[in-house]
Amino acid sequence: MMRTRPLKVALLGCGVVGSEVTRILTTQADDLAARIGAPVELAGIAVRRPHRVREGVPAELLTTDATALVKRGDIDVVVEVIGGIEPVRTLITTAFEHGASVVSANKALLAADGANLHARAVENGVDLYYEAAVAGAIPLIRPLRESLAGDKVNRVLGIVNGTTNFILDKMDSTGAGYSEALDEATALGYAEADPTADVEGFDAAAKAAILAGIAFHTRVTIDDVHREGLTEVTAGDIASARKMGCIVKMLAICERSADGRSVTARVHPAMIPLSHPLASVREAYNAVFVEAEAAGRLMFYGRGAGGAPTASAVLGDLVAACRNKLAATTGAGESAYAQLPVSPMGDVVTRYHISLDVADKPGVLAQVATVFAEHGVSIDTVRQQSRNQGGGDEGAVEQGAGGGRREGGEASLVVVTHRAQDAALSATVSSLRKLDTVRGVASIMRVEGE
Question: Checking DSSP bridges between strand 128-129 and strand 153-159, what pairing results, if any?
Answer without folding.
Answer: unpaired
